Amino acid sequence: MSQASYRKITQEGLWNNNPGLVQLLGLCPLMAVTTNVVNGLGLGLATILTLVASSTTISFARHFITPEIRLPVFVLIIAAVVTAIELLMHAFFFELYHILGIFIPLIVTNCIIIGRAEAFAAKHTPPKAFWDALMMGTGFALVLLILGGMREVLANGTLFDHAHLMFGESARGLAIHLFEDDKGFLLAALPPGAFIGLGLLLAIKNWIDAQQVQRRKAGKTATTATLPVTSVSTE
Amino acid sequence: MNNSVLKQVLKPALLLAAFALVGVLLLDTVNRYTLQRIEANERNALMRQLMQVVDKNSHDNDLLHDSAVLPGKLFHSSSDVTIYRARKQGRPSAAIFVTTTDKGYKGSIQIVIGIRMDRSISGVRVVRHNETPGLGDKMELQKSPWVLDFDNTSLQQPALSQWAVKRDGGYFDQFTGATITPRAIVGAVRDVLLWSNEDNHLLSVFSLPTTVGNPSEASDRAVKAEMENAQ
Ligand SMILES: Cc1cc2nc3c(=O)[nH]c(=O)nc-3n(C[C@H](O)[C@H](O)[C@H](O)COP(=O)(O)O)c2cc1C
């Protein structure tokens, strides 16, 4: 178990066991805020920060966390981390804080975080727990970004609009206007757009995986007749 | 036996308490560190909103510390209306009303309205809403100049009967495919104007006692309530 290599951890977080596309965890905030890239990025970064801080802390403290008090301690650490991040965002990213609003405190309830604490951080050394959290968080954030990008392009014809809310006034120029606002596809910005978009992403991922399995199978049968490799993770 | 049970219970309990204590210390530190900055942010944001709806150089007082609160039902507002008072050399120059309507498409719409002493409008901005992005959000100045149509209007210009969206036979444009939102906003502005035009209401605002407590705290509470609503 503790032999998980960094390479394996990276693959798991970004692709094989991606929280958004495979574990399907944290879907409520994922769908609710991804109306544009900047919102997705904001929640993504906040989630990465929370995951990394809580997983690393839990890994450091893992020898003190006895099985009986495991869950309350996880919840306590995660809640403290999220509250601290909420306060810091309120202080330093005021506008974004108001946009992401309720979804920052709701990170506490994102199952990815307690999931990684229980499944990984509590059993691994801090460097590995840190890397696992970073990769899982990045995997989640990438899904947020892509979904946000898809919905923003379709609904508003823009990308990176409102980037100044996150990166300051100088980032105003980042916004890309692809076509006129009025011609947008409104559905993409509404809740159904989130479901349809996520469904498409899932389909694309599964299709790529299936292609790979097939290619591998073809290669294998040519040499030896072993069983196909399953892509199911046992984590 | 007794001793070991005690140990079994006490040890995890103490450990848990230790974790809680560390958590509390951490949060207390972060809170102390961010408190002032957050308050300043809230104050600045509010100030920026207020400055958008009053004329330049129309006042020399500290708006944030010169406010009064009136019951919302006077204005058909769904929550209490805070009024910030602009004065120049002590003389009233404009009043800024923060009113809320729940007649929009979804949830409540919070609007700030600046009214000069001659009862004309110096500016209107929507500060908080949950209307549909791309359809009902053209009242945001970033999206469309629609809200500027209110500048310099009054109950005489256009006439009271014209204080409605065009679809209802009034003066103000609706948005394409979205009439409910602009109708709610026009109605809310009209209600505040109606109240302000009666007798000496507008002047009397300036002799109301100043709100105790920090107005930015009140706005923070409003944000929280709004977020709970949105849930
Ligand atoms: C998903 C959805 C969201 C809508 N959002 C709004 C909105 O935010 N504001 C609004 O005025 N109308 C909104 N509408 C349209 C209203 O239902 C209503 O049809 C419209 O305001 C009437 O305008 P019209 O008389 O100009 O057609 C929405 C409709 C749908 C289906």
Question: Which characteristics define this entry?
Answer:
heterodimer, A: 235 residues, two-stranded antiparallel sheet, 9 helices, disordered C terminus, B: 231 residues, 4 helices, elongated, binds flavin mononucleotide
Compile the SSE list and pairings:
The complex is a heterodimer of chains A (235) and B (231).
Chain A: H1 6-16, H2 27-33, H3 37-60, H4 70-92, H5 94-100, H6 111-119, H7 126-156, E1 158-159, H8 164-167, E2 176-177, H9 191-223
Antiparallel strand pairs in A: 1-2
Helix pairs in contact in A: 1-7, 3-4, 3-6, 3-7, 4-5, 4-6, 7-9
Chain B: H1 2-52, E1 67-70, E2 81-88, E3 91-101, E4 109-116, E5 121-128, H2 180-197, H3 201-204, H4 215-230
Antiparallel strand pairs in B: 1-2, 2-3, 3-4, 4-5
Bound molecules: flavin mononucleotide.
Structure description:
- The complex is a heterodimer of chains A (235) and B (231).
- Chain A has 235 residues and is mostly helical.
- Chain A has one domain.
- Chain A is built from 9 helices and 2 strands.
- The radius of gyration of chain A is 20 Å and the shape is globular.
- In chain A, 43% of the residues are buried.
- Mean pLDDT of chain A is 84; it is low at 225-235.
- By secondary structure, chain B is of the alpha+beta class.
- Chain B has one domain.
- Chain B is built from 4 helices and 5 strands.
- In chain B, helix 1 (2-52) crosses helix 4.
- The interface between A and B is medium-sized, with 32 and 27 residues.
Mean pLDDT of chain B: 88
Q: What is the overall pLDDT average of chain A?
A: 84
Say what oligomer this is: heterodimer
Measured by DSSP, the beta-strand proportion of chain A falls in: under 5%
Number of domains of chain A: 1
Cα-atom Rg of chain A, whole angstroms?
A: 20 Å
Q: How much of the polypeptide of chain B forms β-strand, as a percent range?
A: 15-25%
Give a concise summary.
With 235 residues, chain A is mainly alpha-helical.
